Each structure stands twice: as structure tokens, then as C-alpha cells.
């Protein structure tokens, strides 16, 4: 792994990713960048001094939407083409996503459906329905996500997935 901070030893922002040459890391993880910060100035300093090549496709995980203006500002200063219209970005505030949207199941009375976590074997189905899916890499990524993180799926009475988050 590669770690970068805004300053040392009193860092207020940290970023980590995997080395491109690390063969043990799945392809989808190599494109991932994880960023955590306590102050906008720390985030700004980290983004401006980082060794990340922002012209290559990146998946920024767990990035709070409150930092989006700073990200756009830094990308613009680094010459990223048109950061105001990040058309290839799908934005979500992943730090709160599952916590705030996962359904409560204790009052459910319908015998025709059940709610439980997604199963890893459903990664192909999820990949086919995802706008970025349909590839082996996407299926591998979704299998990892389903196996690692919380999820919720509505199953019909025969156990077929109907809807998921």
C-alpha cells in the first residue's frame, strides 16, 4: 500500500492506495483511492501534493460529499479537463450510505418476501443490472463488495433476489 499525508507528524488528511505493480491486488482495487481528512485545508494540501495521476480512471471510496468542492478545485488546478462536469463520476456519500438507507425488518409481516443480506453468488446478477457492470472485472469487484460489506436484499418466496442495496 501507498500512504500519503498532508504533513507529518501532525497530519489532518491521509490518502492510501495500492501500488500498480502489486500483483496480489485485484484490478478494481488498484484503481481505488481512499481519503480521510479532518480539515479542508489538509485535504487541499494533500490533493495538491499527492503523487496520484488524476488523469487515469480512479474510484474514490468513502469520500464525503462535503469535500467535493475542494476536490474539484484541486483537479482544476492540476489541469484535469472540466472538473465541474465530472460526467464519469457517480457520487454517493458512502460514509453514511448503508447506515441511513438499510431497511428495518423487525415489523415486516409479508410472507411472500424476506429481507436478508445479498449472497456472493448473486454478483453476476448485480453486475448485469449495474450501468458499469457486465464485465469480469465488475463481477469480481461486486463479489468482493458483497462478501465484505453489509447489504440488504429483498427475496421472493422462492429465494430469488428482487431488489438490493
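^ Assign residues to that structure.
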Amino acid at each position: 500500500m501507498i500512504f500519503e499525508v498532508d504533513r507529518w507528524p501532525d497530519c489532518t488528511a491521509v490518502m492510501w492506495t495500492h501500488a500498480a505493480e502489486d500483483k496480489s491486488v485485484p484490478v478494481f482495487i488498484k484503481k481505488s483511492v481512499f481519503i480521510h481528512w479532518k480539515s479542508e485545508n489538509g485535504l487541499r494540501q494533500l490533493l495538491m501534493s499527492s503523487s496520484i495521476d488524476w488523469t487515469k480512471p480512479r474510484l474514490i471510496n468513502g469520500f464525503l460529499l462535503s469535500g467535493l468542492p475542494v476536490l474539484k478545485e484541486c483537479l482544476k488546478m492540476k489541469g484535469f479537463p472540466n472538473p465541474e462536469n465530472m460526467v464519469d463520476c457517480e457520487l454517493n456519500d458512502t460514509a453514511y450510505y448503508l447506515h441511513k438507507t438499510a431497511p428495518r425488518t423487525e415489523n415486516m409481516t409479508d410472507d411472500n418476501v424476506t429481507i436478508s443480506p445479498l449472497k456472493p453468488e448473486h454478483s453476476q446478477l448485480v453486475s448485469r443490472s449495474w450501468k458499469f457492470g457486465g464485465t469480469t472485472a465488475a463481477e469480481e469487484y461486486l463479489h468482493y463488495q458483497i462478501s465484505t460489506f453489509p447489504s440488504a436484499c429483498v427475496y421472493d418466496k422462492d429465494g430469488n433476489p428482487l431488489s438490493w442495496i
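Residues 25 and 127 are 20 Å apart (CA to CA).
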